[in-house]
């Protein structure tokens, strides 16, 4: 049984039905409550389950609260509770002069870089001291001393080495786009607005997306046109 239009109270047939705001309307009856301008699914605004245009959409006004003794008492009570909580948090945090730093990969990299710089400066200063003064406890016959004995600790390390290149993994292939749902038209439909699509009985509608209970968005496989279509004119396949 066909439903009744919420505006005029007459029967709404499928070819002229608009399902919106949990009600059924004729396309001509789906208009603004104030100026009666005809609306569609794109430019209407609902308020109290009634359609309005953008100019006559009801505005929300602020409500003034009377400054009564009871309200002043509640305000003072809330203020005192806030001060008590602030003092409790202050006492808990007293004496804690440090902040926790998250151990992120960026922080680990910075720490490693600082360690390397400190190590390099240490060896530079050690080399300057060795070159500036005569080292103690060095044998007179230096030909019998291994050259490694004059190397400062860690001098054999190469701090300017090039990092080993990490093999780049091939990016994973993107998954194929979803084909969407497919529907078959059970009635002929002629587009009433520029954002709608026309089709005939038996056409296959692909890439269908549900907008609401009464409307869908899809593409007619036969013509390639895409747009909005009424959901009661098609069936799933």
Automatic annotation (TrEMBL):
GO BP term, pick one: monoatomic ion transport
The LIM zinc-binding domain, residue ranges: 3-63
Protein name, entry field: LIM and SH3 domain protein 1
Span list, region Disordered: 145-179
Tree of life domain: Eukaryota
GO molecular function, one term: metal ion binding
The keyword Iron-sulfur belongs to this UniProt entry's keyword annotation: no
SH3 domain residues: 178-237
PANTHER family xrefs: LASP, LIM AND SH3 DOMAIN PROTEIN 1
Matches recorded under PROSITE patterns: LIM_DOMAIN_1 (PS00478), LIM_DOMAIN_2 (PS50023), NEBULIN (PS51216), SH3 (PS50002)
UniProt-annotated location(s): Cytoplasm, Cell cortex; Cytoplasm, Cytoskeleton
Recorded GO CC terms: cell cortex; cytoskeleton; focal adhesion
UniProt-listed InterPro entries: Lasp1_SH3, LIM-SH3_domain_protein, Nebulin_repeat, SH3-like_dom_sf, SH3_domain, Znf_LIM
